[in-house]
Amino acid sequence: MSQQRTTTRSLQENPQSAIRNPQSEDFTRYDQKLEFILRTAARVFAEKGFHSTSMRDIARATKVSLAGLYYYCKSKDELLFLIQDNCFGHVLARLEARLKETTDPVGRFRLVVENHLSFFAANMAEMKVLSHEAESLAGEMYERVSGKKQQYTRTVRRILGEVQAQRGGTRRKLDLTVATYALFGMMNWIYNWYDPHGKLPVSELVESFTRLFLSGFLPGAGDDPLPHTHAAPAVGRPSVWRAVDSGARLRHK
Fold it and tell me: How many domains does the chain have?
């Protein structure tokens, strides 16, 4: 059996592998230290990139010796796995619990947006790591994380389908796969610009995203025919160094 397979199996079998609710009675000192290591590792990965980060970097940032670090995880890959696995596990479990609050499709959609944005607004480094390092895992670790991502995606897609069935009427229906990934793209991009400590509270962010996605930027314009544009002439591979105006030229100072 490969080391990677052994590592993943041990994570599944060891109850101390998963970060639990800090308020629960079984949230041990081990869990608290592991959560601190994972949060710090996420911040370092977000700043430096996973492949540019070493275990020594994590040890320096956490002030935990290398030997102590290896007590909590066997490798840098396992650290990344735990960050991704715990994040997707938490956000999915929170959503499934909250969806029991209502059967109204629009209300359930709003819960999707609120759950996702509130969770990742509180975990911005983790969000960046999940977005940038999605393909950095391999083998069983990748498959386990991918399985949770697919389950989460299916849940959101189903809810969008429910909204479309209830409110779509005679309007032209959008492809659900396009709608699902457009929603995730919109929500996941917040790590680039949103300040959780700024003037815009998460509640207003949720309200804006929900209205924007369901009603569009121009309310009532969803059925209007889109204007057609002429395709750009084929002039070879576009270059960022060429101005649109053919008379313009880059000049060296």
Answer: 1
Q: How many CA atoms does the CB half-sphere of 10 hold within 13 Å?
A: 11
238 in any annotated domain: no
CATH number where 145 lies: 1.10.357.10
Distance CA 186, CA 80 (A): 24
pLDDT digits (tens, 9 = 90+) for 122-156: 999 999 999 999 899 999 999 999 999 999 999 99
Q: Express each pLDDT in 174-190 by its tens digit.
A: 899 999 999 999 999 99
Residue 133 resides in a domain:
yes
Q: How many CB atoms lie within 10 A of CB 252?
A: 3
Cβ neighbors of 239 (< 8 A, separation 6 or more) are: none
Containing structural domain, residue 167 = 3-215
Q: What is the pTM of this model?
A: 0.77
